[in-house]
Amino acid sequence: MTKPRRNVQFQHRETNGHHARRPSVSGSSEGVSEPGSPGPKAMNGNSEVSQEEKSSKLTVDISTVQKDLTPQSEYEKKKQTFITRTIWTLVMIGGFFVCMFAGHIYVIGIITAIQIISFKEVIAIANVPSRAKNLPFTRSLNWYFLGTTMYFLYGESVIYYFKHIVLVDRVLLPFATHHRFISFMLYVIGFVFFVGSLQKGHYRFQFTQFAWTHMALYLINVQAHFIMNNIFEGMIWFFLPASLVITNDIFAYICGITFGRTQLIKLSPKKTVEGFVGAWVLTIIFGFAMTNVLMRYKYFICPVN
């Protein structure tokens, strides 16, 4: 067994007159890295690359999940919309049938409520709240002309269809005899109030409101007057057109969500050509079938007594 040597010195190479010192392990690791192990910069670069790869993989996974869930979510959304519309459609149709079979008066009440609400909405389009506050009689005159128009049109229908009652009653006879004169005087009174309410600086707004009010009365109240006359001539002349409009809307929705692929108009992106054609065909079929059914009942074809 050999003994370890002590005090043994090794010769060192001299470089430029100085003793060159052998680099230590720590120094070598700091200066030069081994071929198999990456240096600090390489480690940082690899970590950034790995993070980018992870983020890209995560993004791909999320997009894949979204693609998998999108058809299901769209289906659930359409299903929920279809259920909600179906429920409210049945509720409105049920209420319509209840009012229709309750009698002509209830149907006329529905038409009156609809025309008042429609008049309010149309008048609100041309209304400017900031100017209306400074003109207190503007809205009052709108409703006054509505009342005057309804008095004239309703009176004409009542006198025509119930003259055997109105012309006999002692109280109603003067109103029936001078109905048109009374209506004309009511309109003149409203016109005088309109002229008296004109204010400097608001002429254009006030005349716009005046013209808009009369246009709304013509489009809404006059049509409602004709609808009332149709009801008095026979319920079929009201029920059949209303049912055709309702069924056309229902068939268009059903055909659109089932077969719809081609957009009909840009104004309404959800309207499709397939829904329009399908609703047109089915509405014609429904019209022929419903007409043959309603003609068998006197309640629908006979005028009101």
SSE arrangement:
Elements: E1 14-15, E2 18-19, H1 25-31, H2 40-102, H3 104-125, H4 129-134, H5 137-161, H6 163-166, H7 172-177, H8 179-196, H9 203-233, H10 236-259, H11 273-294, H12 298-301
Antiparallel strand pairs: 1-2
Helix pairs in contact: 2-3, 3-9, 5-8, 5-9, 10-11
- The radius of gyration is 43 Å
The helix-strand sequence is EEHHHHHHHHHHHH
Count of helical stretches: 12
The helix-and-strand class reads: mainly alpha
Q: Tell me, what's the shape?
A: flat
Extended strand count: 2
How many angstroms does the end-to-end distance come to?
140 Å
Round the mean pLDDT to the nearest integer and report it: 79
Question: Order of strands side by side in the largest beta sheet?
Answer: 1-2
Q: What is the share of helical residues?
A: over 70%
Which segments are poorly predicted (pLDDT under 50) over 5 or more consecutive residues?
12-37, 40-44
Note the beta-strand portion: under 5%
Main sheet attributes: strand count, strand direction, barrel closure:
2 strands, antiparallel
Polypeptide structure, described:
The protein is mainly α. It has twelve helices and two strands. It has a two-stranded antiparallel ribbon with strand order 1-2.
Key traits:
two-stranded antiparallel ribbon, mainly alpha, flat
